[in-house]
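[step 3/7] fold_predict: job queued, chain A
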Amino acid sequence: MDAISAAQDRYGRPPEGPGAGPGPDLGRLGLEQLRTLRRDTLEQEADLSYLRRLLHGRMDILLAELDRRPGAGAARPADAAEPGGALLERLPAILTDAPSTVRRSARHVTLGPPRGQQSQLEADALMGDVQLADLAAHPAEELLAALERLRAHEREVSGRRQRLLRTADGCNAEITRRYRDGEARVDDLLAGGPL
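[step 4/7] structure written:
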């Protein structure tokens, strides 16, 4: 269950998203509840972000394998494949992202490591019968099918991640508003008083 669904259960409001309601009414939550919701959403966003990186890495590797094959994606016989090390040697270049030209605001997040094992299993399951260790043995059609499964799941994961980020941003805005409007006091926070 994600943090938005948990907020729906706790506070009786529907989750955000296409075709859904507006999400939890952040104005009705206590300061401690807002902080808990924000922390939960950011933890889940970190897990989804890690999963997205795994999906993108697999997509990049599949695309590199398809690109190296002659004949615009035609299946290549196993005996005509490049030596096994060729793709492996190119992995650093395949998996390196170009510097971003988009300027983004920084988020300071102090969280534990994402649930890598679960994300790893999820990404592997989407690959189906295609094994990264032996891509040359698979026809292009299998690689393309795996690529499409990865792309579809990445779109769904990205949508969930964006909803979580909107909820976290809403929590931040509500907490800031309360301090700005005097509903919450910094002195209480510094003195270890009520959150």
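[step 5/7] annotate
Residues 14 and 20 are 7 Å apart (CA to CA).
Confidence is low (pLDDT under 50) at residues 7-21, 72-84.
exit 0
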